[in-house]
Amino acid sequence: MVANAPDPGALERLIGFGRDLRHRGLPVGTGRIVTFCRAAGALGLLDRDDLYWAGRSSLISRPEDVEAFDEAFAAWFGTGFRLELPIPGSPPDVDGMGDDERALEGDDLDDRVMAREWHELEEDALTDGEASIRIVASAAEMLREKSFGDLTEEERLRVSHLIRRLALQLPMRHTRRYRAAPSGARFDVRRTLRRSLRTQGEPFERAWRDRGRRTRPLVLILDISGSMAPYSRALMQFAFAAMAAGRRVEVFCFGTRLTRVTRTLRTKDPDRALREIGHLVEDWEGGTRIGASLKELVDGWSQRASIRGSVAVICSDGLERGEPDLLRDQMAKLRRLVHKIVWVNPLKGSPHYEPLARGMAAALPSIDEFLPGHNLESLEELSRALAD
Fold first, then answer.
1. Burial readout 138-162 (b: 16 or more C-beta within 10 A, e: otherwise)
2. Please, are residues 316 and 356 in contact by the beta-carbon 8 Å criterion?
3. At the N or C end, where does the chain have fewer CB atoms within 10 A?
4. Between residues 142 and 252, the one the model is more confident about
């Protein structure tokens, strides 16, 4: 037997114990068995109690599995088990032995068997791990593509957390003033001459000036009418993520009337904020009057909120119950106030959707970007559009 190799009989019993737990219905994957063998090897000289706790901590994680684990352990190891194992970090190096070692050690068939079994075990663990990663990635991709209206309550909670963690970047704009920059549109003569004094009048280091950049205001106008009920909560989570990205964000809700919820969303507890908004907004899941709500926004908030020069994002299905002419006029006024209008319509996620509703048709001439908003993937697309 190789001096630094695991005892074949001991290692076989450890592996067999892990597999027996799996046969008893416990969720013991190959990766857990490998961890158990490594833990046993790290402890070196083992008695029954050491081995028990090595297995208890590495092979199971649920309290309801302890009883089945104890029964299997008693059946496999009895009361007097004791062995000595080096750390099984790598398989026994049988082929690396010299002739003298082979002569001293004798038949190495068991070593070869255990080396091959250890290789197979680690390969199985790697395969299981890769399969788990593929399953998790596939589930996450399905969750990204699934419509908000089709989510279960558990999936809704998971998606809400993912939306709040979106790396949202607010839109930027160039300022009028120029400032020093590593490169830019204007050659800075004064700074270049000052630098040349350090090089005997030779202008080796040229200086430049360029226009600065600052955050452009973002205005979110969210439809919380009855037809938008499957999507309203997710859009509120997106608004919360936007609020966390910067201070120059305004959020309004509308159904039959407009309600500003900016201050309510400026908190670290989104669930509490949503509850407060539910009490604050009187027409939640009611009718839809987009034109009248936009008129209230333009007339009442264009001077008090950061509307001018902003990127306005209207999230609505466009199912207007008011006069489409009013909506058309107010969209034109809003377009003159803001830098860009992005309309997010959950119905656009359908491959057969056409903006034929009279409200949507009236708004289209003033829209710069028309995006879907029915799932997590579409909100990721919206966050990229805002950054651009």
1. eeeeebeebbbeebeeeeeeebbeb
2. no
3. C
4. 252
pLDDT tens for 73-123 read 888 887 555 555 444 444 444 344 444 333 334 334 444 544 555 555 555
Q: How many residues does the chain have?
A: 388
Give residue 358's identity as a one-letter amino acid code: R
- Which residue in 76, 41, 83, 74 sits closest to 58, CA to CA? 41
pLDDT digits 0-9 by tens, 7-55: 556 777 888 888 889 888 888 877 788 888 877 777 665 667 778 888 8
Report which of 31, 5, 33 is spatially closest to residue 20, judged by C-alpha positions: 33
What residue type is assigned to position 198 of the chain?
R
Please name the residues in contact with 181: beta carbons below 8 A apart, sequence gap of 6 or more. 208, 209, 210
| Eight-class DSSP state of 349 | G
The residue assigned the tokens 């697309």 is: 381
H or E element that contains 312: strand 311-315
> In this structure, what DSSP letter does residue 64 have?
G
**Residues 206 and 237 sit within 8 Å (Cβ to Cβ):** no
Task: Scan for tokens 């399953």, then name that residue.
Answer: 135
Q: How far apart are CA 8 and CA 94, in angstroms?
A: 13
Query: Residue 23 contacts by C-beta under 8 Å, 6 or more apart in sequence?
Result: none
Strand order in the sheet with 218-223: 258-260, 249-254, 218-223, 311-315, 340-345, 369-372
Answer yes or no: are the C-beta atoms of 76 and 40 closer than 8 Å.
no
Q: Give CA–CA dist 378/148, Å, rounded.
A: 11
> According to the 3-state scheme, what is the secondary structure of 104-169?
HHCCCHHHHHHHHHHHHHHHHHHHHHHHHHHHHHHHHHHHHHCCHHHCCHHHHHHHHHHHHCCCCC
Contacts of 84 (CB under 8 A, 6+ apart): 7, 44, 45, 46
Using CA atoms, how far apart are residues 339 and 368, in angstroms rounded to an integer? 10
309 versus 200: which is more confidently predicted? 309
Task: For residue 95, count other CB atoms closer than 10 A to its CB.
Answer: 9
pLDDT band of 370, cuts 50, 70, 90: very high
Q: Quote the tokens at residue 200.
A: 């005997």
